[in-house]
Amino acid sequence: MNLIIIGCEYSGKSTLAKNLMAWGKKRDINYHLDDHFTIPDSSLPKEDRDIMLTLSPRFKERFQRFQAVYHVRIMNLYRDSLEVGFYSEDTIYGPLYYGYDSRALGIRHGRELEKELPSDTILVLLTASLEVITKRMAADPHEYQVIKKEDIPLLLEKFNEEFRASAIHAKIQIDTTDLSPEQVLEEFLKQARARYLASEDLLRIMMNE
Q1: CA 162 from chain center: how many Å?
Q2: Where does the pLDDT of residue 115 fall: very low under 50, low under 70, confident under 90, or very high at 90 and above?
Q3: Would you tell me how many other CB atoms lie within 10 Å of the CB of residue 178?
């Protein structure tokens, strides 16, 4: 099962990914998880993240482009992969916060990368209301927060546009505004089972329920 989860910061992407990892381990679905596409790369030590913030837009763009292409390869190597943010996030955050616009630079990105993704890839968009995003941001601010409060309406619109423009056939959209993390997971599984999961994935789940 290959998944890409996108959405504005504080929409619940990392929480859904964490819950999917725990759910999958009980059902012979062992995701290769990558949740480090936001600058600075959250998988790096603090000192390296601080250095990453000082890089020029050109270096940031190149780093992001290289890791996007690399993780397309990862998705084709692993039976189960889970990519959080990925190239869609960079397409939106690049011009707003990182100082570059990959599309304006003519960089091979987005729709071109999608041509090489596994055929069973499911794109998941998480959304939430402006009020809820703002509330989550105030209650539990990220150490290296990217987004700005005043940009939230624009970001919600941009992620929706990116979701609609994607050439990935299998798409699931979930509004997390009034849902608990457990309910978000349940809603994803409900939609995925009904519409997109391959027979071998359904069999693995059934055998381990």
Answers
A1: 12
A2: very high
A3: 9
Tokens (6 digits) for 15? 């929480």
Give the pLDDT score at 207.
83
| pLDDT tier, 203 (very low <50, low <70, confident <90, very high otherwise) | confident
Taking the alpha carbons of 175, 179, 183, 184 in that order, is the dihedral positive or negative? Answer: positive
What does the pLDDT average to over 78-103? 92
Class of domain 2-207: alpha beta
Q: Which two tokens stand for residue 68?
A: 């996007």
Measured between its terminal Cα atoms, the distance across the chain in Å is 17
pTM of the predicted protein model:
0.94
68 pLDDT tier (thresholds 50, 70, 90)? very high
Handedness of CA 147, 115, 121, 66 (dihedral sign): negative
Asked if omega into 40 is within 30° of 0 (cis), the reply is yes
Query: What is the domain partition of the chain in residue ranges?
Result: 2-207
φ/ψ (deg, to 5) at 122: -115, 130
Q: Which amino acid is at 167?
A: A
Cβ contacts of residue 64 below 8 Å, gap of 6+?
37, 39, 90, 94, 98, 102
